Amino acid sequence: MRRLLLTGAAALLLASCGQGTTDNQAAAGNDSETNAGVTPGAPSQNLSALLGATPRLGQLVKAAGMEKVFDGKAPYTVLAPTDAALDKLPAGSFDGLDKPERKAEVTALLRGHILPGTILAADLERAVESGKGKATIATMTGEPLTITRDGDGLKVTGKNGQSARIVGTEQPASNGVVHTIDTVLAPAG
């Protein structure tokens, strides 16, 4: 657990300092110029605003105390579960999220859906193509996610074998991008 926290803290620190490209950006064929800040015509909403537009997802972000992360300038890619995906969680999953004893659980869940850097759908497609059908990217927890083709779309599979499809269109933000997924990815464990 301590290693997990230190890895995440180091990733957040590097990302917030704007230190070049991340391994995910390089794997997805994304260079640092893509993430060099807001460009003319770039989306005006940040990740915090986009995620907050879905009340339950916004509730998770707040419970984890990650509003500042998503308000910051460091770019992130968020794999955001749909409302239907959140509805599939066990009854009571949202009860008591604001309690301190649930913060670590909520934070781990969210971090398993966050990738450092801005990784667009086209970047994921190229990475899968160049990887001969699959690409591996790391979440903020350091856990690998495997991206593969699934029909005419993409599928994300976690270390524990659980998978989700990327659905809908990406939502660009001033500090990253949101890809909607149809299943909540449980932390590897």
TrEMBL record:
Residues covered by the FAS1 domain: 44-185
Signal peptide stretch = 1-20
Is Ribonucleoprotein tagged as a keyword?
no
Q: Does the UniProt entry include the keyword Transcription?
A: no
Against Pfam families, the record matches this protein to: Fasciclin
UniProt KW keywords: Signal
For region Disordered, the annotated ranges are 23-42
Q: What is this protein called?
A: FAS1 domain-containing protein
Task: Identify the species of origin.
Answer: Sphingomonas humi
